[in-house]
Design goal:
By secondary structure, the chain is an all-alpha fold. The protein contains seven helices and no strands. The radius of gyration is 24 Å and the shape is elongated.
Length: 151
């Protein structure tokens, strides 16, 4: 091969490696931000239908409901939502969107009916608990979720 051809190949190789390096360095943060913003948007936009707001919590005055709800939470919810409801359970890292932090104001300001509806209906990756937990148990979870914000 001629010296000029070897130099062209060398320059093209160096240019290709440099371009690939720039692509990795500069594209990766943008992809991460995009995925994170989609995760936040997915959890922030999950709204129960208006009809859910009119549901009344039949256990609202039952002092034991939150205690029973805590036991259910420890059994069914901790893996994703974490011990204190912060959305940081051991399974949370592998989920998209991430589990909600149940102590946040945007969650706590939702009606009991909306929370009940979400527990009942689910939205992947969150399961529907309609056929696993009784209505009473789902209302107990709502009462316990209210207690999480007080801690």
């Amino acid at each position: 091969m001629k010296k000029g051809m070897i130099l062209k190949i060398l320059y093209l190789t160096i240019f290709s490696v440099f371009s690939f390096f720039l692509l990795i360095v500069y594209a990766k943060p943008r992809v991460k931000r995009s995925v994170q913003s989609k995760q936040v948007a997915a959890t922030a936009t999950w709204k129960a239908p208006k009809s859910a707001d009119s549901m009344k919590n039949p256990l609202a005055k039952n002092l034991n409901a939150a205690k029973d709800g805590k036991n259910l939470f420890q059994t069914y919810c901790v893996t994703c939502h974490g011990d204190k409801g912060g959305g940081n359970g051991p399974s949370a890292a592998g989920l998209n969107p991430k589990p909600a932090n149940l102590t946040l104001k945007r969650i706590q300001k939702q009606s009991d009916g909306a929370l009940f509806w979400k527990i009942t209906t689910g939205k992947p990756p969150m399961l529907s608990w309609k056929y696993t937990l009784s209505k009473k148990q789902r209302w107990e979870l709502v009462d316990y979720i209210r207690e999480l914000a007080k801690k």
